[in-house]
Design a protein that fits this description.
Number of domains: 2
Largest sheet: 4 strands, antiparallel
Number of helices: 6
Structural class: alpha+beta
Helix content: 40-55%
Radius of gyration: 22 Å
Order of helices and strands: HHHHEHEEHE
Number of strands: 4
Strand order of the largest sheet: 2-3-1-4
Distance between the termini: 41 Å
Shape: elongated
Amino acid sequence: MACIIGGALVGIGMAIVFMSGSTTGGSDIGAKLIQKYFPHIQTGTALMVLDLIIIGTSILMFRNVESGLYGMISMVVTSYVIDMTLYGLNRSTMMTVVTPFSDKIADVLMEYLDRGCTLLECRGAYSKKASGVTLCVVDRKQMYKAKKLIYQIDPKAFLIVSEAREVYGEGFLASDQE
């Protein structure tokens, strides 16, 4: 239990350090370097990979499996807390819908989910047919309802669902510039 509570407290402390733009001078410097070249990797995840390699090596060298496992548990908790503190639990989903019924889909999503949409015009590269694109960012819990609404209007819609790590604007996070 101590490794879980300790990992959570260390995670909160390290997240505060990272939010100030600093490092602790340890393996988190390596994590920051990983992020420089792979910006899609979250800070806590990069730190966890490095520290788990170090812990795994120490298990092999010192043959103390029990302490190593406690260290691994603590490190996983620490990285999770760092990522949740820095990036939050507000994961959103971006839906990109390619359909000739983009106006109607946007209207339905705005009415039933109370989410804004962006409409784009497009042309299929293969078919050369004109079509429309509806972009809409929804909360994760709204995604399944949104999919149902989209496919009720156009069962043949081309739908791309992707995770949006950070969304700024009305109904989401406030911009740092405000």
